[in-house]
Protein: guanylate kinase
Organism: freshwater metagenome
Amino acid sequence: MVNPPILSAEQRATALVKALEARKRRADVKAKVRSGEFSIDTVLEIASNEESIAKMRVRELLEAVSGVGNVRALALMERLNISPTRRIAGLGRHQMRDLRREFMKTARDITPGKLLVLSGPGGVGKSTVASRLRATGDFWVSISATTRAPRSNEIDAVDYFFITEDEFSRRIRDDEFLEWAEFAGNRYGTPSVPVEEALLAGRNVLLEIEIDGARQVKAHMSNAITVFLEPPTWEELVARLVGRGTDSPERRAERLQLAQDELASAPNFDVVVVNDQVERVVEQLIALTS
Ligand code: ADP
Ligand code: 5GP
């Protein structure tokens, strides 16, 4: 065991003053968090420059947030995989990002937008609903990146950002996706920066993504509203896929096979909406944000 350094009386007094100052500074920062003057983001920023704040326990910081008590702080840390004794300085890059997302704060006079995640089996009508919602102006609709080849009617940077496998892998490595998943042999991902910027600017945001992606978003952003779009009947789902005419019979069979598993996930969503009439679905989704 390493022996503690032997300090002179003067050094001990200096160390004591330093410790008292650090404690006072932590109390001051926590009071500002409590009053709403400082956001979690601000404190994480301060911690990158100030040792006394970097040494604060994450749990203490979270408990200072109005409305987050002891129990919620611990539950949140468990969900984000942060050990209960972790100090701010010990947080990993992903843990920092998740905390920032959890407490995303906008400028004082802007109410943050709501994040709606629309999922459901292929062919149920998600893109149709998403483009109608975009047209209403009530939502900013995220454009995903994909490794899938464009369909004849699709336009790059409008329907998707069509990118190569290598570019997709690079974006995963650089942590550029809010979520990503593989579906029917292709990869799809939501670029995180535009989504976060739109929410901070007070826009409601719509993600139209498959089921595993929706699960990932909910795990990181608990206030996201996940919506499962259901077909009125199985026969209608098959008819819509055939009617769309964009997939070969083999591809369609593969998508229908996947759709059976997808339909079983409806109970894991916050809301289930039946897509009988597009206009009715659009109204229901707008109502969810008010
Ligand atoms: P997804 O994006 O879920 O794969 P699409 O939006 O491409 O599905 O819709 C599949 C097909 O179903 C399209 O041809 C679309 O026009 C049609 N469709 C969508 N919603 C409805 C609806 N409520 N009633 C009838 N047809 C619909
Ligand atoms: P499609 O190839 O028919 O355009 O899309 C196939 C599936 O991928 C659909 O269920 C669609 O919602 C989903 N999808 C589109 N973009 C994303 C995304 O960014 N992330 C995830 N997880 N799924 C996506």
